[in-house]
Amino acid sequence: MCRVCNFAVECGQPRQVTGLNGAGKTILLSILAGNTEPDAGTLRLGHGVSLGYYAQEHEGVRAGVPVLSHMRDQSDADERLLRALLGTFSLTGDIARQDAGTLSGGEKTKLALAQLVAGRHNLLLLDEPTNNLDPPSRTGVALALAAWPGTMVIVSHDPEFVQALQP
Q1: Long-range CB contacts (< 8 A, 24+ apart) of 130-138?
Q2: What are the pLDDT digits (tens) for 20-70?
Q3: Residue 45 and residue 79 in contact, taking contact as beta carbons nearer than 8 Å
Q4: For residue range 124-145, what is the model confidence (pLDDT) as tens digits?
Q5: How far apart are CA 121 and CA 48, in angstroms?
């Protein structure tokens, strides 16, 4: 495990965190998100940083709540724009009115990521965001995230996904 980690992430750039399984990548993102205390050292976020965190789970996806309501919880944008954003994550048509609890694992992943993009964040921490996605969905999510103007720190074992995020 890394004893000393010192790095900076510049505005608008994706950064990939790589390493062997068990090396502490998920812990690092959890520390950056403020969910885990570091053993030593300090964490300093820049002025005005608003952080969004995807932690391999669908914590923000609630059963009994329509997909579009999840998006409204994150953004003041009108329905047309929210549906367009959902569409960039391949969540189209009647899915917007569907109970989020009935979505497949891959659809829940897409919704969780769409919520982060719709939110008021300028830094996203993404821990294995393609785990529940089929290959075409990975490509679609990569394209949607590549269009997002903020900064991302990504843990991924999917080099094609990370490559698709590069400008």
Answers
A1: 130/156, 130/158, 130/161, 131/56, 132/104, 132/105, 132/106, 132/108, 133/106, 133/109, 134/106, 137/90, 137/106, 137/110
A2: 788 888 888 898 898 998 888 888 888 888 999 998 777 789 999 999 999
A3: no
A4: 999 999 888 888 888 888 888 8
A5: 10
For every residue of the chain, DSSP letters joined together read --S-------TT-EEEE---TTSSHHHHHHHHTTSS--SSS---PPTT--EEEE-SS-TT--TTSBHHHHHHHH----HHHHHHHHHHTT--GGGGGSBGGGS-HHHHHHHHHHHHHHSS-SEEEEESTTTT--HHHHHHHHHHHHT--SEEEEE-S-HHHHHHH--
Give the integer Cα–Cα distance in Å for 8 and 13: 11
Residue with tokens 């995230």: 145
pTM over 0.70: yes
